[in-house]
Amino acid sequence: MAEFHWPVRIYYEDTDTGGVVYYANYLKYMERARTEWLRSYGLEQDALRTEQNVIFAVRSVHVDYLKPARFNQLLSVSAEIIETGKASMTFRQEVVLNNNSENVDGDVLCRGQVRIACLDADSMRPCPIPESVRKEILSDG
Predict the structure, then answer these.
(1) What confidence score (pLDDT) does residue 139 get?
(2) How far is CA 98 from each of CA 3, 49, 119, 130, rounded to the nearest angstrom?
(3) pLDDT digit string (tens) for 5-41?
(4) Domain extents for the chain?
(5) Which residues participate in catalysis according to the annotation?
(6) For the segment 79-115, what is each residue's pLDDT rounded down to a tens digit?
(7) What is the C-alpha to C-alpha distance for residues 77 and 31, in angstroms, rounded to an integer?
(8) Which of 4, 69, 94, 122 could cross-link to 37 by cystine, CB 3.0-4.6 Å?
């Protein structure tokens, strides 16, 4: 599975009074990257709920903040599965300064691991990741 990258531009609303990205916004960027990663496989979360009665929810997060991002910078947010279970996936994610839209090898600003649980949408209890979803996201192409 290839690492997925999603671009994000820092807007004024993303920053705190010190002019840097507010720490909680990195979690939003990571969430959006995982959503876009899923979408890149043709999977939409609303359709998964309607058609398969499953949702994905964050189970745990570990984040290291390394350097600040600032207003108007272009970042690249990655998402890569590093572990799968019957009802969970663990992602490695990085937020990287991207001074050139062709280059995503800039300074790492933030990195984290996010564990996602698959839940039955009605009971909110863990359930297996649907086999059709597992096959799609775990395939190499």
Answers:
(1) 76
(2) 16, 34, 35, 35
(3) 999 999 999 999 889 999 999 999 999 999 999 999 9
(4) 4-138
(5) 16
(6) 999 999 999 999 999 999 986 655 456 899 999 999 9
(7) 10
(8) 4
Cβ-based neighbours of 132, under 8 Å, separated by 6 or more: 52
133: amino acid identity, one letter: V
Q: What is the pLDDT of residues 48-91, one digit of tens each?
A: 999 999 999 999 999 999 999 999 999 999 999 999 999 999 99
Of 41, 132, 114, the residue nearest 77 (C-alpha): 114
Nearest one of 30, 55, 36 to 125, comparing CA atoms: 55
- Its CATH architecture, for the domain 4-138, is Roll (3.10)
